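G., the chain you wanted modeled:
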Amino acid sequence: MEKSEKKGAKDSLFKRFVAYYKPHKATFAFDMLASLVFSLCGLFYPVLSRRLLNVSVPEKRINEVVVFGAALIVVYIIRALMNYYISYYGHVMGVKMQAAMRSDLFSHLQKLPYSFYDNNETGQIMSRMTNDLFTVSELAHHGPENLFISTFMIVGSFVYLCTINWIMALIVFAFLPFIIFVSIKAQNKMNTAFDKSNAEIANVNATLENSISGIRVTKAYANESHEQSKFDADNQSYVKWRKWAYRIMGSFNAVSGFATQLCNAVVLIVGGIFCIKGRIDYGDIVAFMLSITLFISPVDKLLAFCEQLVDGIAGFRRFSVLMDATEEKELPGAKDIDKPVGELRFEHVSFSYDGKHEVLHDVDLVIPAGKVYALVGPSGGGKTTLCHLIPRFYEVTDGTIRLDGVPVRDITAKSLRQNVGIVQQDVFLFTGSFRDNIAYGNVDATDEQIVEAAKKAKIHDFIMGIEGGYDAQIGERGVRLSGGQKQRLSIARVFLKDPSVLILDEATSALDNATEVSVQRSFAELCKGRTALIVAHRLSTVKNADEIVVIENGRIKERGTHGQLLAAGGAYKSLYEAQFKEYGEAE
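Predicted structure as C-alpha cells:
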C-alpha cells in the first residue's frame, strides 16, 4: 500500500511538471530536433576521419580530402547553429516555465488562509519561489535535452563502434552498467542531501529576512553579535548538508570518471594489440579512439543530468508542497453582497485555533447598524480574534456570525472583505509613494478621490509640504514616517475603501497622548455612518461608544455604556480605576 502511494505521488509530481511544457510544445519540439541534429553532427568527425586515414590519405586523393574538409566545416556550422538554438531558446523556455510556476505559486499564496501564514515564515516561502524554482527551471531546460543527447550519442556511438570492431565495442560498453549502478546507488543519498540542504538555505533566507526587517531593533539593543550568531548557525547548517551532498556527488563523479578513463586505457591496449596482429587498420583504431570521446562525453553529460535531476526534483517537490496547501474555501452557493447596512450578529460563537483550546466560547452579541461598540478586557481575552472572525480571516468553530442577517460563511470572502475596513496598531505600508498607499483602499480611485481621502484623514497638508507631494516615496514600510502619520495614511486608505463595517484594533495604543487625541478625531470622522468595533486598552478612548463589551477568557463578562458599567461596579470599573491610578485619567 505504501509503495502504491509513493508511486502515485511520483506520478502526480511528474504530471504537474510536464504540464508546464504544454504552452511551449513547439519550442520544446524544435529543441529536441536541434539536439538530434547536434548529436548527428557530432558523429561526422570520426566517420570522415576513418575514411580519410584508410582511403583518401594512403591513395593521395587530395580533392577528396578538401571536399571532406569543407563538408566537415559545413557540418560544424550547422552544429553551431543548433547549439545556439539549444542555448538561447532552450534557456528562454526554461525561464518562461519558471515564471509560470512563480506566477502560479504567487496566485496560490494569495488564496491561502491566515492560518497558513501563522505557521510559515516569509523567508522560507521566498526561498521556494526563487532558489527552488531556479533549480527546477534548469532541470526543465537542460534535463530533457541532456538526456536525449546523451542517450542518442551513446546508442549512436555504440552502433558505429560495432561497425569498426564489435569486440572492442563490447569491451567499451561493459563499463556502462557499472556507471549506471554507481549512479543509482548515489541518487537516493543525493536526494536526501539536496532536500535537506534546500531546506537549510530556506532557513538562511528566513533568518536573513527577519534580521533585515528588524535591523532597527537589533541596533537599538546592540544585539548585532547575537543576530550574527543566529545567521552563522543556519549558514553553517546549510554548509554541512551541502558538503554531504557534494561528498556523495564527488565520490560518484570520481568513481564514474575513473571508469570512463579506464575505458580509454583498455581501448588503447586492446586496440594496439589488435592493430599489431592485423585485426584492425590504423585508420580504424584512430576512428575508434575518436568515437570513444563521443561515448565518454555523453556519459559525463548523463552524470551531470543525474545531479540536475536530483536537485530539480527536490526543488519541485518543495514547490508542490506549497501548491498543495489548502486554499480558503467558499461554501457552495456563496454570494456577493453589494453595500450592506452593517448589522452584525454573533450567535453562540465559539472558536479555537488548534481545535483543543477555545479562545472564544458561546459569544452572543448584536451590534446594530451604524453603532460604535467597544471591546475591552485583559490581553489574550479574545477581542482581536472576535474581530478577525467577521471578515473570515478564520472560520468559526461553532455558531454563526451574520451580516445584515446573512451568515458570513454564505458571503464570498472577497465581497465580504471589500465591505470591512480594518485599522490596526501595527500599520503595514507598502514600499512606494503616498499615492500608492492611499490608493490601496481602492486601486481604481481617481486622483481627486485620493486627495479627498487624505483630507478627511488630515494628512493632505503634510503630504503637500513634502517635496514630490503625493508621488514622494515613504521608504520601506513607511520608515520615514512617524507613528501618527502612518496611522493617518491607513485611515485615508479606509476612507477611500468606504466600508460598511469598521474595525479599529488597538489603532492608537502606540501613539503619544497628543497624537492620539488628534488621530481620534479622524477616527470619529471615519466612524460616522458605519458600524464600528473598537478594540482598546485605554478605556478613555472608548467612553463615548454606544456600548462597551467586556471580554475575559473568551466570554462576555458584562456590557453597557460607560456610565452603566461604572455604576455596576464590576470588571469594567476595576479596569477603569486601575488605569485612572496609572494614567490619571478622569471620567
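The chain has 19 helices and ten strands.

Shout if anything looks off.
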